[in-house]
Amino acid sequence: MTRFEAEIDGQTHQVVFEPAGERLRVLVDGRERLVDARAFDGFFYSLLIGQHSYEVTVEENEEGFRVQVGTEALQVRRLDPLRSSRPGGARGRSGPTRVRSLMPGKVVRILVEAGQQVAEGQPLVVVEAMKMENEVRSPGPGKVTRVCVTPGATVEGGADLVTLE
What we know:
CATH architecture of the largest domain: 2-Layer Sandwich
Strand order of the largest sheet: 1-2-3-4-5-6-7-8
Largest sheet: 8 strands, antiparallel, barrel
Distance between the termini: 30 Å
Low-confidence stretches: 81-93
């Protein structure tokens, strides 16, 4: 089970999700939905919620995520103590930065190695959750000092994936 807070249009929402067989059980502010989600190339997802189908794009940006459902676009900011809450993400950080998994899943691919320089937003690790592949990206420029996982490893939400300096 993964829990976090998200800010959308200035309002804070409590979000919980967990596997429910082939679907995902999602609670937003206590309202439950069963979601059948499929990932496609890039940032595209197909969601089936009840009898309604949605085509969704999710793109990570400096403020969090830009989510577009049909013609409506929303800015979603994840309020999570595991990630930097400073505007602009990891800029201005001092010391090592631990890049963590946003949700439980299986490590599918590792896209970097120790000693490699990375740019802000560069994909580091791919984690599969609920049959969707999620790229975990660098919160800022830096050097990979440690890769904490191996392909095929199962990780919990909040698990360290990569350490950057």
